[in-house]
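Input (structure):
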């Protein structure tokens, strides 16, 4: 028994010493698996004949495992320091643990989470076609300011909701927060559907806004934390796809309005259905393994991993979480920590992504495309808006296939470039007299091209990129802060767009949007890092090597 033990121990020391010279962590992982299999075979042969040495053998194997994990940590730290020395660019790093594709198990839970994304898009788009009709019923048809508040109340409340979502997700977990979020979503939808005055409508929009603000924070967070590394980009873009589907559903739901003006109430009431399904679906969905691990709920994390990836993957994924967990021993970050020197740069990049996304004009198109088409002489204005929504969905589907091949940064730069060119075309179509006979067609074509460009990068990438670039101890709060910038910018656009257009004209406003797109391209080129093909733990080690 002693000889066999020394043989195994010596074999381990030789193999472990070789690991220190390996050029790549992936090769290390493969050889570690081989070592483990050899150990298991030898352990079986010894234990089949001897029982008195089981405790001794277990101690030897435990020490061997600790040695292997120590080497792993050293290699990871070395790769992290190397990345920092080369400017912190995560492209220099190989994936810590490339996962085998397991979409079949993960997809149902991603689909349940995306009900929140559908609600997000539906509540944003439902007011587009319904605004004129509800304004007549509620007595605010001649009050542009009050119409702006009906639109923007949702957005102001969503800014509050995004902060609340981050805190709730940290305290109660991702799935429980989804269930709590269904409460304001259901009540808000009911109140807006039955509103007999503008005050009730605004209260309903406030509650719905809090609800979609929470979902905007936790849907991308939850998806990124349960998705395998090799398909995280594709699954992350599914969030934006379902937001677009929600917007399209709201625009299509408005088609009967010309025949039945009171249908706007039914449009708002339809939002109750996905809200209920979201609450029920999350009852059967697994909690984020990363959140459970950070809370010290190891057995629950293992159960969640087994549900998501299969029981055979539990040791592998837990090993990865422990390896990256060298920073998770720190307490959860407070709000003030987001502004510290350690995190401020990456947090400011996250906020800037949403600032540029909104001030590039996307929600001016989402909220007011029907009114713009009507002013351009398009007879079927609601149908034209539905076409814009369909192009948004189409572009997002294309983006899903490009996300993990082209990369996040490349798609952002191309997207904002296309949006800027489209906005310039729209501006000229309303300004140049030579284009006046074609202004209606150009308005539709320019808007469709703009939305297509948006959906290929500026739409899906920010929500996917944020959970990737933020360290685990600040992830929920930093995502919430960035989304607060999203909603504040969204609120300003929704509230003042019509007033600014009345004062300066649509062509000037579109020209300003084009200039913002140009600034966005310059910012993305200089400040955004590429994250495709990297695990969240690896990105965290690269961008925050001291965490």
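Output (sequence):
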């Amino acid at each position: 028994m002693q000889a066999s033990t020394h043989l195994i121990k010596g074999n381990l020391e030789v193999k472990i010493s070789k690991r220190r010279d390996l050029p790549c962590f992936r090769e290390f992982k493969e050889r570690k698996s081989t070592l483990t299999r050899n150990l298991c075979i030898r352990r079986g042969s010894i234990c089949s004949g001897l029982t008195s040495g089981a405790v001794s053998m277990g101690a030897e194997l435990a020490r061997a495992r600790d040695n292997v994990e120590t080497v792993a940590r050293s290699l990871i730290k070395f790769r992290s320091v190397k990345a920092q020395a080369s400017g912190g660019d995560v492209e220099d790093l190989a994936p810590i643990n490339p996962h085998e594709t397991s979409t079949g198990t993960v997809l149902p839970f991603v689909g349940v989470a995306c009900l929140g994304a559908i609600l997000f898009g539906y509540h944003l788009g439902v007011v587009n076609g319904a605004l004129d009709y509800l304004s007549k019923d509620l007595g605010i048809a001649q009050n542009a300011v009050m119409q702006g508040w009906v639109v923007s109340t949702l957005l102001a409340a969503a800014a509050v909701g995004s902060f609340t979502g981050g805190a709730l997700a940290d305290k109660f977990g991702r799935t429980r927060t989804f269930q709590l979020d269904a409460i304001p979503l259901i009540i808000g939808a009911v109140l807006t559907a039955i509103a007999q005055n503008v005050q009730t409508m605004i209260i309903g929009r406030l509650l719905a806004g809090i609800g979609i603000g929470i979902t905007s924070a936790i849907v991308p967070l939850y998806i990124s934390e349960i998705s395998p590394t090799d398909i995280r980009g594709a699954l992350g873009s599914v969030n934006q796809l379902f937001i677009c589907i929600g917007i399209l559903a709201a625009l299509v739901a408005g088609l009967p309005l010309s025949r039945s003006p009171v249908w706007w109430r039914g449009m708002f009431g339809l939002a109750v259905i996905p809200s209920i399904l979201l609450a029920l679906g999350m009852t059967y969905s697994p909690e984020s393994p990363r959140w459970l691990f950070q809370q010290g709920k190891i057995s629950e994390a293992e159960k969640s991993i087994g549900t998501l990836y299969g029981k055979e993957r539990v040791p592998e994924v837990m090993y990865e979480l422990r390896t990256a967990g060298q920073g998770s021993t720190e307490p959860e970050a407070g709000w003030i920590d987001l502004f510290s020197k350690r995190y401020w740069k990456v947090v400011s990049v996250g906020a800037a992504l949403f600032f540029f996304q909104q001030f590039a004009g996307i929600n001016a198109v989402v909220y007011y495309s029907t009114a713009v088409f009507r002013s351009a002489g398009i007879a079927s204005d609601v149908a034209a808006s539905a076409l814009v929504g369909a192009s948004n969905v189409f572009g997002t589907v294309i983006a899903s296939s490009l996300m993990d091949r082209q990369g996040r940064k490349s798609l952002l730069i191309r997207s904002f470039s296309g949006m800027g060119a489209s906005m310039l075309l729209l501006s000229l179509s309303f300004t140049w007299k030579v284009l006046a006979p074609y202004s209606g067609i150009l308005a539709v074509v320019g808007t469709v091209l703009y939305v297509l460009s948006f959906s290929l990068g500026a739409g899906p990438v920010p929500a996917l990129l944020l959970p990737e670039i933020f360290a685990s101890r600040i992830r929920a709060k930093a995502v919430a802060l960035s989304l607060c910038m999203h909603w504040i910018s969204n609120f300003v656009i929704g509230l003042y767009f019509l007033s600014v257009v009345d004062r300066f004209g649509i062509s000037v406003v579109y020209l300003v949007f084009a200039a913002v797109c140009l600034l966005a391209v310059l910012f993305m080129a200089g400040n955004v890092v590429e994250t495709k093909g990297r695990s969240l733990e690896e990105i965290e080690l690269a961008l925050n090597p001291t965490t």
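Notes: The domain at 103-285 is CATH 1.20.1250.20 (Growth Hormone; Chain: A;). The chain has two domains: 103-285, 333-546.
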